[in-house]
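Before relying on records like the one below, remember that each one covers exactly one chain. Contacts with other chains, cofactors or solvent are not represented anywhere in the record.
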Amino acid sequence: MSSLKTETKSKETKNLFTVFTITQIAVCVALLCVSAFISIPVPFSTVPITLQTFMVILIANLLKPTYALIAQVVYTLLGILGLPVFSGGTSGIGHIFAPGGGFIVGFIAAAYFVSLAKGKNENIIRCIIVSIVVGISCVDIFGIIFYAVFAGADLISATVLMVLPYIAGDIVKCIAAALIASALRKALKKANIGF
């Protein structure tokens, strides 16, 4: 009986990482890297406007939770190891332990929890609501905490500086990401490519 369980676990592990799933993750990591380069500086903040939130939410709506998490962790590790993949072409561990570093950590949480919460039924309204509520909450909670800790600000100041100016844009990005992910899934299903 135990050998049957071991064999089943072994098959599950093999099925977890196929060439197709590894390719999915690699493409998503590349898209995350590119999204960080599309950056608009904001005069009153150290955090620029980028397409990263859009891309994280798009990936979370496309991939299964484990794959979305892996894609985001790989992207973050590439930046920590010195590849210029963080916003504005920056890199290094110091970029994480900085006032704006919480957003990078928040992206990891958002990728996993949005993918998990959207479920399998692909209801577009649910995907949009989950993307906005779960996605923005994950990103902003870490953003506020890191800013408060590393900039020595109180939570209200951190929220006013790091969240309020960006919230409308983030909602638009989440809606767009959920809609595009839905359209992509339908197109890929028609082409017989499961995402």
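Residues 18-190 form a domain with the Arp2/3 complex 21 kDa subunit ARPC3 fold (CATH 1.10.1760.20).
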